[in-house]
C-alpha cells in the first residue's frame, strides 16, 4: 500500500453555533477511490471543503504528502494538485464553456512581457476534453447556460479530471444524473483511479459507492463511524450504518426491501 | 445679550454661489457679536425649506433671515414665525410687496425678475436681438425668473431660448457650443451664475466668439471677473450677496438692541459690474463678491 | 417512521432572551433609542422637545414615513422604485395643471392625478414583470421621464417651472382638506390656553397656540403604517408579498400570483408618493419642478435602516417607520443642535452604514447563519 | 380499476427553439403511484409542470376527472386538488415554516367582514403536520433557512400531502436525501396512496421506483417509451429502457454490474 | 463511453448569420447606427457633423466613456458604485485643496489625490466584501459622505465652495498637461490651412482652425477603453472579473480570488472617476462642490445601454463605450436639432428602456433561453 497523499486528522469545523464537524479523521491514498457516505447534513460537503481549501478547519491537522499543510484558499489546494467538483456546481452559466473550464487556472502566454490569456490553447483543450467525455459542443464559446444539467455536471468533472493531478474530489456528482450519465461518471472515476490519482467520492447511493469504491467512510452528525475496505463490508451493512441502525427494518419490510 | 439669527436659503448644498452669503453672515456675526447659523435644504427642494423655517422658528432664535423663493410655499411658515414673535427679514429673492405681506421687517435683495428685466433692457440698448439663456438650475423656479425678465426686457419671446444645461462644466460648455452652432444668429448670451458662466466663457474662447458675442451674466466669481477683464463678458449683474447677508444681521442686531430700523427696503442690486473698477471685485470674488 | 431527535446536540444553546430580542425591527428600535438619547443630551434646550419642535421633526418624519411605507412593501416584494421622487414632483405638477391651469374642480384634479399616478406605477410594474428587467433600470428610466415632463409641461403651458395658487383653487373643496387640513384644533387651543404649549405673541394670530392641530400628513402616515403593517403581517396578501420577494419562482410554483402582487405593490408605492405630493401641494399651495428630488433614496434609506433586505423577502413596516423617524429626527435635530449643515450628509452616510451592518447581524442570527 | 383522475393526451411543450415535450400521453389513477423515469433533460419536470399549471402545453389535451381542463396557473391546479413538490424546492428560506407551509393557500378568518390570515390555525396545523413527519420544530415561526436540506424537503412533502386532496406530484424528492430520509419519503408515498390519492413520482433511481410504483412510464428526449404496470417489468428492463439500450452492458461489466 | 449525438433533434435550427450577429455589443451597435441615422437625417445642416460639431459631441461622449469603462468592469464583476459622482467632486476638490490652498506642486497634488481616491475605492470594496452588504447601500452611504466632505472641507479651509486658480497653479507642471492638454495642434493647423476643416471667420481667433487639437480627455477615454477591453477579454484577470460577477461563490470555489478582483474593480472605478475629475479641473481651472452630480447614474446608464447585465457577469467594454457614445450624441444632438432641452430627460429614459429591452432579448438568445 502506498502512503496516504492526504491525511485529515481530527478535523473540527464550527459555523457560528453549529458544529458541522466534530473531529473527523480520514486518509486518502493514491490510486484508490475513497467513498464518503452519510445522511443529509452529516458534514460530508463541509469535510471535503476543508480538504479543498474552501474552509479552514476550526481544529485538527491536514497532512499533504506527509507534511502539515494549510490551504488558505482553493487556489492553494489547486496548486497542490487537488481538484474538486462541488455539490452545487462551480459553473457560471453566462460564461462560455472554455472560460468556465479554465476558470481560476487560465493558461497564459507572454506577449511583449505581458501575460495574456491564451484563448486558443484554452479553446483547443476544452474541445478535446469535452470530446473525450462524449459531449459535442457547438463551439468552445457556447455559454454553459445552454447546456443541460447533466452536460454541465460532465463539464465540471472533465475540468476536475484535467486539473486533478493528484487528488480528485467529487461531491455527489451523480445525485441529479440519469442512468447513462451516471455510468459515464463512474467509468471516469474508474479510469482516473487507475492512472494513480486519489479519488474522494461522496454519494448517498450505496450501489454507486460499491461500484467504484476501495474504501468507505460513513459520516454521521459530524462524526465518523469508521472506515472499511472493499470486501470487508457488504452493501447491506453499509446501508445500515448510514441509516443509523435498526429502525429501517420495519419500513423495509412493508416496502419490499428495495430502498 | 446673546442674540441668535438664522439664515435659511433655498439653495441646494451644491450651489456654490451661496458661499458668499455664508461668509457675509459669519463676518457680520463676528463684527456685531451675535451668533449666526446658515441652513438650507440639501436638494434645493423648497418644500423642505419650509420645514427648515418651521424648525428654525421652533428653536426660538431672535431673528430669521430667509429668501422668498416660492411665495406660496413659504408664506405660511414665515407668517407663523413672525406671529410667534420672531423678527424676519427677507433677502435675495422675493419682492418688497411679498415681504410686507408675510410681515417681515424689510427686504434686502434684488428681485429676480426685475434684475433680469433691467439686464434685458440694457442688452437691448447694446444691440442684442436673439439670445441664449443658460440655466444650470432648471428645477429651481427662482433662477428661471431671470431669464423671463431678460426676455421681457429685450421685448422678445422667451421661447426655447432658455437652455436646461445641467451642472457639469464640460456638458454646459458643449451644449452652449452646440446651441450656438445650430443657431448662428444668436447675438447675446445670459448666464445665471458662475456655474453656467465659467464653462460658457470656455466655450466662447474655444469657438472664437469671445468678445464678439454679447455676454451678460448674473453674479460674480473668479472666472467671471477674469472674463469681464479680458472683454469676454460685457457685464456681470452684481446683486451683492454679501450685503444681502451682512445687512440683515446688522439690522436685526440693532433692532433688537436699540430698536432702530431703516425706513426702507434695501436694493442690493442690480448693479452692473463692468471693466471699470474691478480691483476689489477681483480680490474678493467668490468670497465676499 | 424515523423520528428526529427533539434536540440537536450539534446546535450550541442560544438564550430565550436573545431569541425574543432578535426581530427585524430591532435595529430600528436600537437606532431610535440612540438617536433620541443623543439629542436629549445635546439639544435639549434648543426647543427641539417643545411642542413646536416636536411638531417640526414629527412632520418631517411623517413625510418620510409616507413614502417609506410604500418603498418598504415594494422592497419586501422584491423590487424597488427609483422614480418615487420624480413621481412626487410629477403628481404635484399634475394637480396644479388640472386644478389651476385648467381650473377643474380640485377634487377632480386630485382624483385624476391619483388615477394617472397609479397607472404609471402599474406601468412600471408591468414593464418589470414582462421584460424581467431589474426594477433599478426600469424605474431609473421613469425617474428621468417623469422629471422631464414635470419640467417640460409647466414650461410649455406657463413658461415657468412653478405653478402657484393651488390653495386658493382648493378653497371650499370637499376632498382637499383630507390632504391639506389639520385636525384636533380645539384640543390644541385648550392646551395653549392652559399654558401647556406656547401661544403666538403678536400678529393676527395672537393668542392662538403655536401648534394648532395635527396636520393630515401625520394622519396619513399613521394610516399607511397601520394599513401596511396589518396587510403584511395579518393577511394572506401579506404572505404573498413576502413570498414574491423571497423567491418569485418558488412563490409562483406554490400558486402565489406573483405578478399581481408585484404590480399592486408598484401601484401602492405610487399611491404613497401621490399622497405625499397632494399633502404637500395642499399645504404649501404650489407645485414646483424641484419637488421630491432624491426622495427615492431617502425612502430606500429609511426602509433599509428599518431592517428590510434590499434584495426582498424580509423586512417590516414598523421598522421602516422607525427608520423614517430616525431619518427625520437626525435631519432636523442636527439643525437644532446647530451642526454645520454640509455635515448632515456625512452623518447620514455613517448612520446608514452603521444601521445596515447591525441589521445584517440581526438577520443572520434569525436565519441561523450565525 | 378506477377511472383515471388525470389524462394527459399528446402533450407538447416548446421553449423557444427547444422542443421539451414532443407528444407525451400519461394517465394517472387514484390510489396508484405512477412513476416517471428518464434521463436528464428527458422532459420529466416539464411534463409535470404542465400537469400542475406552471406551464401551459403548446399542444395536447388535459382531462381532469374526465373533463377537459385548462389550468392557467398553479392556483387553479391546487384548487382542483393537485399538489406538487417541485424539483427545485418551492421554499422561501427567509420565511417561517408556517408561512411557507401555507404559502398560496393561507387559511383566512373574517373579522368585521375583512379576511385576515389565520395565523393561529396555520401555526397549529404546521406544528402537528411536521410532528407527523417526524420533525420537531423549535416553533412554527422558525425560518426555513435554519432547516437542513432534508428537513426542507420533508416540509415540502408534508405541505403537498396536506393539500394534495386528489393528486400528489413529487419531482425527484429523494435525489438529495440520505437513506433514512428517503425511506421516510417512500413510506409517506405508500401511506397517501393507500388513502386513495393519486401519486406521480419522478425519480432517476429504479430501485426507489420499484419500491412504491404501481405503473412506470419512461420518458426519453421528450417522448414516452410506453407505460408498464408493476409486475410486467423487471428492474433490469426498466434500467435498460432509461439508459436507452445496450451500450451500458460493456460498462457494467467493468464496474461489477452495480450501477 | 456513451457519446451524445452531435446534433440534438430537439433544437430547432438557428442560422449561422444570426449566431454571428448575436453578441453583447449588438444592442450598442444597433443603437449607435440608429442614433446617427436619426441625427444625420434631422440635424445634418446644423453643424453637428462639421469638425467643430464632431469635437463637440466627441468630447462629451469621451467624458461619459471614462466613467463608463470603470462602471462597466465593476458591474461585470458583480457590483456597482453609486459614489462615482461624489468621487468626481471630491477628487477635484482635493486637487484644488492641495494644489491651490496648500500650494503644493501640482504633480504632487495629483498623485496624492489619486492615492486618496484609490484608497476610498478600496474601502468601498472592503466594506462590501467584509459585510456582504449590497454595494448599492455601501456606495450610497459614500455618495453622501464624500459629497458632504466636498462641501465641508473647502468651506472650512477657504470659506468658499468653488476654488479656482488651478490652471495657474498647474502652469509649467510636468504632470498636469497629461490631463489638461491637447495634442495634434500642428495637424489641425495644417487641416485648417488646407481648408479641410473650417477656420474661425470672426472673433479674436480668426484664421485659426475651429478644432485645434485633440483634448487629452479623449486620449484618456481611448486608453481606458483599450485597456479595459484587453483586460477583460485577453487576460486571465478578465476571466476572473466575469467569474466573480457571474457567481462569486462558484468562482471562489474554483480558486478565483474574488475578493481581490472586486476590490481592485472598485479601485479601478475610483481611478476612472479621478481621471475624469483631474481632466475636468485642468480644463476648467476650478473645482466646485457641485461637480459630478448624478454622474453615477449616467455611468450606469451608459453601461447598461451598452449591454452589460446589472446583476453582473455579462457585458463588454466596447458596448459600454458605445453606450457612452449614444448618450453623448443624443444629449448634444438634441441641441443641434433644436429640441426643447428639458425633453432630454424624457428621451434619455425612453432610450434606456428601449436599449435594455433589446439587450435582454439578445442576451436570452445567447444563453439559449429563447
Ligand atoms: N456555511 C455554513 N454556515 C452555517 N452552517 C453550515 C454551513 N455549511 C454547512 N453548514 C451546516 O453544517 C452541517 C453539515 O452540512 P454539509 O453540507 O456538510 O452536509 P452534507 O453531509 O454535505 O449534506 P448533504 O448530503 O445534504 O449534501 C449542516 O447542519 C449545515 O446546515
Ligand atoms: N423554461 C425553460 N426554457 C427553455 N428550456 C427549458 C425550460 N425548461 C426546461 N427546458 C428544457 O427542456 C428540456 C427538458 O427539461 P426538464 O427539466 O423537463 O428535464 P428533466 O427530465 O426534468 O431533467 P432532470 O432529470 O435533469 O430534472 C431540457 O432540454 C431543458 O433544457
Ligand atoms: Mg453535501
Ligand atoms: Mg427535472
Automatic annotation (TrEMBL), chains A, D:
Residues 6-246 form the ABC transporter domain. Pfam families: ABC_tran. One of its GO terms (molecular function) is ATP binding. The keyword Nucleotide-binding applies. PROSITE patterns: ABC_TRANSPORTER_2. It comes from the Bacteria. Keywords: ATP-binding, Nucleotide-binding. CDD domains: ABC_Carb_Monos_I (cd03216). InterPro entries: AAA+_ATPase (IPR003593), ABC_carbohydrate_import_ATPase (IPR050107), ABC_transporter-like_ATP-bd (IPR003439), P-loop_NTPase (IPR027417). This is Monosaccharide ABC transporter ATP-binding protein, CUT2 family. It comes from Cognatiyoonia koreensis.
UniProtKB/TrEMBL annotation, chains C, E:
Keywords: Cell inner membrane, Cell membrane, Membrane, Sugar transport, Transmembrane, Transmembrane helix, Transport. The lineage of its organism: Bacteria, Pseudomonadati, Pseudomonadota, Alphaproteobacteria, Rhodobacterales. CDD domains: TM_PBP1_transp_AraH_like. One of its GO terms (molecular function) is transmembrane transporter activity. It is a multi-pass membrane protein. The keyword Cytoplasm does not apply. This is Xylose transport system permease protein XylH. GO terms for cellular component: plasma membrane. It comes from Cognatiyoonia koreensis. It is found in: Cell membrane. The chain crosses the membrane at residues 26-44, 56-77, 84-104, 110-129, 136-154, 213-232, 263-285, 297-330, 342-362. Part of the binding-protein-dependent transport system for D-xylose. Probably responsible for the translocation of the substrate across the membrane.
Amino acid at each position: 500500500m502506498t502512503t496516504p497523499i492526504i491525511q485529515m486528522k481530527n478535523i473540527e469545523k464550527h459555523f457560528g453555533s453549529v458544529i458541522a464537524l466534530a473531529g473527523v479523521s480520514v486518509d486518502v491514498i493514491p490510486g484508490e477511490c475513497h467513498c464518503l457516505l452519510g445522511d443529509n447534513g452529516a458534514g460530508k460537503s463541509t469535510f471535503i471543503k476543508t480538504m479543498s481549501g474552501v474552509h479552514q478547519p476550526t481544529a485538527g491537522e491536514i497532512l499533504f504528502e506527509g507534511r502539515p499543510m494549510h490551504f488558505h484558499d482553493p487556489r492553494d489546494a489547486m496548486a497542490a494538485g487537488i481538484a474538486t467538483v462541488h455539490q452545487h456546481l462551480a459553473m457560471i452559466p453566462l460564461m462560455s464553456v472554455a472560460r468556465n473550464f479554465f476558470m481560476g487556472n487560465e493558461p497564459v502566454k507572454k506577449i511583449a512581457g505581458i501575460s495574456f490569456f491564451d484563448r486558443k490553447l484554452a479553446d483547443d483543450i476544452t474541445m478535446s476534453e469535452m470530446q473525450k467525455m462524449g459531449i459535442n459542443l457547438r463551439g468552445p464559446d457556447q455559454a454553459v447556460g445552454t447546456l443541460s444539467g447533466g452536460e454541465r455536471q460532465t463539464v465540471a468533472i472533465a475540468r476536475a479530471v484535467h486539473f486533478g493531478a493528484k487528488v480528485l474530489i467529487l461531491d455527489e456528482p451523480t445525485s441529479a444524473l440519469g442512468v447513462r450519465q451516471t455510468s459515464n461518471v463512474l467509468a471516469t472515476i474508474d479510469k482516473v483511479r487507475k492512472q494513480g490519482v486519489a479519488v474522494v467520492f461522496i454519494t448517498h447511493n450505496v450501489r454507486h459507492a460499491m461500484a467504484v469504491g476501495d474504501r468507505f467512510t460513513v459520516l454521521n452528525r459530524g462524526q465518523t463511524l469508521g472506515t472499511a475496505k472493499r470486501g470487508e463490508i457488504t452493501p447491506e451493512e453499509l446501508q445500515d450504518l448510514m441509516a443509523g441502525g435498526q429502525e429501517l427494518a420495519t419500513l423495509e419490510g412493508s416496502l419490499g426491501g428495495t430502498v | 445679550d446673546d442674540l441668535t439669527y438664522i439664515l435659511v436659503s433655498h439653495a441646494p448644498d451644491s450651489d456654490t454661489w451661496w458661499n458668499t452669503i455664508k461668509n457675509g453672515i459669519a463676518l457680520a456675526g463676528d463684527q456685531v457679536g451675535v451668533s449666526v447659523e446658515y441652513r438650507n435644504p440639501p436638494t434645493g427642494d423648497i418644500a423642505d425649506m419650509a420645514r427648515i423655517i418651521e424648525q428654525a422658528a421652533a428653536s426660538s432664535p431672535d431673528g430669521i433671515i430667509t429668501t422668498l423663493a416660492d411665495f406660496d410655499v413659504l408664506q405660511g411658515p414665515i407668517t407663523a414665525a413672525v406671529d410667534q414673535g420672531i423678527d424676519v427679514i427677507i433677502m435675495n429673492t422675493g419682492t418688497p410687496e411679498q415681504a410686507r405681506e408675510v410681515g417681515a421687517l424689510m427686504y434686502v435683495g434684488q428681485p429676480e425678475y426685475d434684475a433680469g428685466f433691467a439686464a434685458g433692457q440694457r442688452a437691448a440698448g447694446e444691440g442684442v436681438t436673439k439670445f441664449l439663456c443658460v440655466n444650470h438650475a432648471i428645477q429651481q423656479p427662482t433662477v428661471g425668473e431671470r431669464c423671463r425678465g431678460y426676455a421681457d426686457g429685450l421685448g422678445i419671446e422667451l421661447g426655447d431660448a432658455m437652455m436646461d444645461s445641467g451642472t457639469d462644466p464640460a456638458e454646459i460648455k458643449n451644449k452652449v457650443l452646440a446651441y450656438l452652432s445650430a443657431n448662428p444668429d444668436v447675438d447675446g448670451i445670459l448666464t445665471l451664475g458662475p456655474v453656467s458662466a465659467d464653462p460658457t466663457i470656455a466655450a466662447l474662447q474655444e469657438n472664437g466668439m469671445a468678445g464678439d458675442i454679447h455676454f451678460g451674466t448674473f453674479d460674480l466669481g473668479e472666472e467671471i471677473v477674469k472674463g469681464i477683464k479680458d472683454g469676454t463678458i460685457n457685464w456681470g449683474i452684481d446683486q451683492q450677496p454679501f450685503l444681502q447677508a451682512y445687512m440683515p444681521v446688522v439690522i436685526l442686531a440693532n433692532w433688537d438692541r436699540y430698536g432702530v430700523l431703516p425706513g426702507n427696503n434695501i436694493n442690493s442690486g442690480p448693479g452692473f459690474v463692468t471693466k471699470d473698477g474691478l480691483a476689489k471685485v477681483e480680490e474678493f470674488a467668490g468670497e465676499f463678491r | 417512521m424515523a423520528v428526529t431527535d427533539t434536540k440537536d446536540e450539534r446546535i450550541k444553546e442560544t438564550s430565550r432572551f436573545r431569541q425574543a430580542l432578535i426581530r427585524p425591527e430591532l435595529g430600528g428600535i436600537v437606532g431610535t433609542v440612540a438617536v433620541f438619547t443623543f439629542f436629549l443630551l445635546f439639544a435639549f434646550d434648543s426647543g427641539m422637545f417643545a411642542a413646536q419642535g416636536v411638531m417640526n421633526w414629527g412632520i418631517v418624519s411623517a413625510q418620510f414615513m409616507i413614502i417609506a411605507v410604500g418603498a418598504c412593501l415594494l422592497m419586501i416584494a422584491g423590487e424597488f422604485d427609483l422614480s418615487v421622487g420624480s413621481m412626487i414632483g410629477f403628481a404635484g405638477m399634475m394637480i396644479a395643471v388640472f386644478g389651476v391651469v385648467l381650473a377643474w374642480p380640485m377634487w377632480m384634479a386630485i382624483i385624476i392625478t391619483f388615477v394617472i399616478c397609479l397607472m404609471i406605477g402599474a406601468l412600471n410594474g408591468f414593464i418589470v414583470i414582462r421584460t424581467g428587467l431589474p426594477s433599478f433600470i426600469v424605474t431609473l428610466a421613469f425617474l428621468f421621464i417623469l422629471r422631464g415632463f414635470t419640467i417640460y409641461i409647466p414650461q410649455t403651458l406657463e413658461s415657468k417651472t412653478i405653478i402657484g395658487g393651488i390653495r386658493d383653487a382648493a378653497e371650499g373643496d370637499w376632498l382637499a382638506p383630507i390632504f391639506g387640513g389639520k385636525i384636533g384644533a380645539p384640543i390644541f387651543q385648550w392646551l395653549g390656553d392652559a399654558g401647556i404649549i406656547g401661544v403666538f405673541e403678536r400678529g393676527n394670530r395672537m393668542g392662538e397656540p403655536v401648534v394648532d392641530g395635527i396636520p393630515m400628513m401625520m394622519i396619513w402616515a399613521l394610516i399607511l403604517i397601520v394599513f401596511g403593517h396589518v396587510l403584511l403581517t395579518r393577511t394572506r396578501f401579506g404572505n404573498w408579498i413576502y413570498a414574491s420577494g423571497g423567491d418569485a419562482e418558488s412563490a409562483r410554483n406554490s400558486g402565489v400570483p406573483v405578478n399581481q402582487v408585484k404590480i399592486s405593490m408598484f401601484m401602492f408605492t405610487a399611491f404613497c408618493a401621490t399622497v405625499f405630493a397632494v399633502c404637500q401641494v395642499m399645504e404649501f399651495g404650489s407645485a414646483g419642478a424641484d419637488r421630491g428630488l432624491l426622495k427615492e433614496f431617502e425612502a430606500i434609506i429609511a426602509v433599509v435602516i428599518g431592517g428590510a433586505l434590499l434584495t426582498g423577502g424580509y423586512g417590516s413596516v414598523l421598522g421602516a417607520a422607525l427608520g423614517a423617524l430616525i431619518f427625520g429626527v437626525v435631519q432636523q435635530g442636527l439643525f437644532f443642535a446647530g451642526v454645520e449643515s454640509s455635515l448632515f450628509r456625512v452623518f447620514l452616510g455613517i448612520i446608514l452604514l452603521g444601521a445596515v451592518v447591525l441589521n445584517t447581524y440581526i438577520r443572520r442570527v434569525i436565519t441561523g447563519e450565525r
